[in-house]
Structure formats: C-alpha cells, structure tokens
Amino acid sequence: MLDIATLLAHSKDLDLVVRHVLAGLGHGLHAGRERGAGVEFSEYRAYAPGDEWRRVDWKLLARNDRYYVREAERDSHVAVWFWLDASASMSEASHRYAQVSKLAYARAVIACLAAVAQRQGDAFGLLIAQHDSIDYTPASRGPRQLQRIMARLNQTTAGGALPNSETIRSHLHFARAPSMVFAIGDFLEPQSATEEALLRLRRMQHDVRALCLRTEAEVKADFSENMTYCDPEMPQYWVAFDRNAKDVYLQKAQAHFEQLRANCRRADIPYLEACIEDDPTKTIRAFLRKARPV
User: Fold this and answer.
1) CB–CB of 214/270 below 8 Å?
2) What is the 3-state secondary structure (H, E, C) of 188-228?
3) What's residue 246's pLDDT?
4) Do 55 and 199 belong together in one domain?
5) Could you tell me if residue 294 is inside a domain?
6) Is residue 233 domain-shared with residue 151, that is, in the same domain?
7) Residue 38, by phi and psi: left (phi above 0), alpha (psi -120 to 50) or beta?
8) Mind listing the pLDDT tens digit of every residue in the chain (294 residues)?
9) Are 186 and 85 in contact (CB under 8 A)?
10) Which of 89, 103, 285, 292 is spaced 20 to 30 Å from 228 by Cα?
11) In terms of DSSP bridges, do strands 43-46 and 68-71 run parallel, antiparallel, or are they unpaired?
C-alpha cells in the first residue's frame, strides 16, 4: 500500500489518488438514491471498487466476462458543492513530508469526494477562494464534470488572501436548491468571512460540513527556534519561535480552534480536524461519517 508521502507526491495526477483512496472507501456522500419496488432500471456501468456486489449483474458477467453494475436508482436532486480555501496559508507543507502541503491534501480529498458524487449521479460544483475572490465552477453531472473539476484542482496553487464578506455573499447564489457543502481549509482566520458564509448557508438549511487541515508542526508548535517565520498572507510580520513564543502560540491556537468547534456545534455543522500527515482514506471516511457536530 502506498504511504501518504508517496501518494500525494503524485497528486499532479489526481486520478492516481482517486483510484487508490476509493478502493478502500466504499461510502457515499449521502443516502442520495431511492431503491426498491417501482424504481426503473436506467443503465449498466462498469464495476468500480467500492460498489456493492449485490448490484453486479451476474448474467451479464457470464456473457461478457466483465463486471457490470445495474444503475436502477433515481437521483435525489441534492447538489454537492466543494469549497476550497486556496489562500497563501494553504501552501504550508508538512515537516515530515516536504512535498505534501495543505493544498495538495485538500485537492486530493475534494477529488475523491467529487468521484463519489459522480458515482452517485449527483450534480457537483467547485468554489475556490483565494486572491480576494472566488473562482466558480457551476454544478453539473457525469464523467466530464469530474474531469473538469480534476483539471481545475490540478491548476490551483495557493496564493493571496481569502475574499471578504461582501465578495463571498455575492457568490452564495450557487446554493439555491437544497445542497451539501463540503468546506475544506485551515480556518486560521478568527471570525473569518468564510466561517460567516458557512454559518449563513447552514441557516439556509443546507447540509454544511467543515474539514480543518493542519500540520503536525502547527498542532505541536514544533518549529525550529533557530529560524524566523512569517504569515504568508501578511509577509510584513515575522516571528522567532523561542520558548515563550511557542507557549503563547499554543494558547492562542487552542482558544481559536475551541471557538471554531463551538461555533460549528451551535450551528449544527459537522466539523472534523485532520493533519495532512494522516492517511487521506481515513480522513475522508471520518468526514463522511460526520452525521452530527462534535
């Protein structure tokens, strides 16, 4: 089995990541299709890892010596949206795996979730927040949409700051119909416009879920005392991490993320924290299982 460093080192080819992760996943985004009497057969498609064996057409296997799955479900008409923080802070890389950044990890997670949405027959779209603006890929269905999303993710590099509240509000029209919104970022900004928008979407009765990505070094304040660091979104500020600075950092970080968890809990937003050194399959599985807030 590929380890996380090897897997995400090849993230320029997200197809590799998707195939690897989905082989061990087997979960849907939601109970999005209706089954049982009265549901009409729609089509066959090739078997994919994670499909239920009871849906394999064994007679067709005998005739063609290939596995096919019967698609006999109706769409639930739930649109799925992926909200990606691609601001400069997402360029932060793991100290253990230098080639793995927060953005690389986030892109891999979204690519896998998009592949699951495509498998379920859902419409899905992408919003990328960076450089004080939002790049918007409208929701659609099918394999071509998955390729569009994968290509856009491959082209995305971390840069700039997150957009302000006014800019984000102007894009909230994307969620007119009942939607699921998977928001992925590092959520470093206190009371950010992104958090405000997610709370607003939840009040609009959309199913909103948040995945907060951090590095092991950020969690433990495991930074070298022989170096100075700057916020990539505020390069004018530099800090040296001596013992006192680390203690202050840990206290502020703990308070910040406790507040974030509390805000999500009050808004009934399932919230998950993960390190980018974690196995992405386990992170995605935990993210999908989050049926209620922590």
Assistant:
1) no
2) CCCCCHHHHHHHHHHHCCCEEEEEEEECHHHHHCCCCCCCE
3) 82
4) no
5) no
6) yes
7) left
8) 456 666 676 556 677 778 777 776 655 666 544 443 334 455 667 776 666 677 787 777 777 777 777 765 444 567 899 999 999 999 999 988 888 999 999 999 999 999 999 988 889 999 999 999 999 999 999 989 999 999 999 999 999 999 998 998 888 877 777 789 999 999 998 878 899 999 999 998 899 999 999 999 999 888 776 666 666 655 555 566 667 778 888 898 999 999 999 999 999 999 999 999 998 888 998 998 875 444
9) yes
10) 103
11) antiparallel
Angle at CA 186, nearest 5°, toward 113 and 9?
Answer: 60
Residues 172 and 197 in one domain: yes
The answer to pTM > 0.85 is: no
Judge if 48 and 94 occupy the same domain: no
Look at the chain and report how many structural domains it folds into: 2
Question: φ and ψ at 142, to 5 degrees?
Answer: 100, 170
- DSSP lists the bridge partners of residue 129 as 85, 134
Q: CA 68 to CA 56: how far, in whole Å?
A: 6
> Parallel, antiparallel, or unpaired: how do β-strands 271-275 and 124-130 relate?
unpaired
Give the pair of three-digit tokens for residue 40. 């009409």
Closest to 114 (Cα-Cα) out of 71, 136, 147: 147
pLDDT at position 3 is: 63
Q: How far apart are CA 122 and CA 144, in angstroms?
A: 13
- The first and second tokens of residue 66, run together, are 């290939």
The domain in which residue 230 lies consists of 4-27+76-289
| Strand pairing category for 124-130 and 133-140 | antiparallel
> Among positive and negative, which fits the CA dihedral 187, 191, 194, 195?
positive
Helix axes 14-22, 102-120, angle to 10 degrees: 60
Task: Classify residue 148: in a domain, yes or no.
Answer: yes
Q: 211 with 87, same domain?
A: yes
